[in-house]
Amino acid sequence: MARPKLLPDNFTLCLVGTVILASLLPVHGQTAVAFNWLTNIAVGLLFFLHGAKLSREAIIAGATHWRLHLVVLLSTFALFPLLGLALKPLLSPLVTPALYAGILFLCTLPSTVQSSIAFTSIAKGNVPAAVCSASASSLLGIFITPALVSVVITNQAAGGTSAWHTVWSIVLQLLVPFVAGQLLRPVIGRWIERNRGVLKFVDQGSILLVVYAAFSEAVNEGLWHNIPLTALAGLFVVCGVLLAIALALTMFVSKRLGFSRADQITIIFCGSKKSLAAGVPMAKVIFASHAVGAVVLPLMLFHQIQLMVCAALAQRWGARDINPEKRAAGKEAAPAAVARR
């Protein structure tokens, strides 16, 4: 039986199920403490495996395209935060202050890695450059995101610690395991390549654990009593507006700067997306535990919207590149058929 096109992917359904489970059966007391330790271990393992998986050759192959990478990084770490701040007077009335803090946090996050590369490939973009750009964004985000959060978010949601303390916490929990994975790549790299399902399981499993623990804490603090349905509807509008502006601006700027079509595709997909895999663990470190649930809710919604919109764009642009090739092949075959007659 064919899967309905409008049905979200399995991971999104699991995220929704996790939020519902945490809302109905939140963890308390010592169980919550145990879940916190479990999520820390899972997140560390996740970044360790990502470090072991990342190919240095692929990064070096795309690293020379510095103009493209600069545009992507400026879009990710400058354009988005500026949009979040500039649009606040217009969009913040649609949501609660806690949710808009989550929107601002979303704006500071690095780009995705896996889906950016996948969509770039489908749309016939510059894949090596996408690998390099998305990976650089993810690594730099470990340092840039906490600093940006300390600038753009000034309320009590951000846990009250200094940016440098937050950076150090993220370095210990995320970067150290990543570097360890890179160092051990010659030993376990081939095993990782043969067992990609393990990385996918740890990737998605760690996010679900963090989401469950975060929403449990938030529910215990009265999350759903403080977020009306109108604010959730407004959140959908805010996420859609942010993504639409980011897509339009990256498309316009990449054309104006004279990039090739393949490079334009890479800039659009890498420069308009935000990472759920990096954002959820970072939120756990940066924000007070009771605020994490409301902070990651905008990210979860934006993640699903960006996947649906970018998947449609990638398929459309990929088909546009294939069709001219088919027409050209048909034109070449036509004279041969006439000659045979």
What gyration radius follows from the Cα positions, in whole Å? 21 Å
**Percentage of helical residues?**
over 70%
Total count of strands:
0
Portion of residues in beta strands equals: under 5%
Number of helices: 16
Predict the CATH topology.
Na+/H+ antiporter like fold
Given this structure, which CATH class is correct? Mainly Alpha
Average predicted confidence as pLDDT: 81
What is the assembly state of the chains in this entry? Answer: single chain
Q: Tell me the structural class.
A: mainly alpha
Tally of domains: 1
Transmembrane segments: 39-56, 68-87, 99-119, 131-153, 165-185, 197-215, 227-253
InterPro entries: Na+/solute_symporter_sf, Put_Na-Bile_cotransptr
GO cellular component, one term: plasma membrane
Organism: Paraburkholderia saeva
List descriptors.
341 residues, transmembrane, disordered C terminus, Bile acid:sodium symporter, single chain, Na+/solute_symporter_sf, Na+/H+ antiporter like fold, globular, transmembrane helix, mainly alpha, membrane
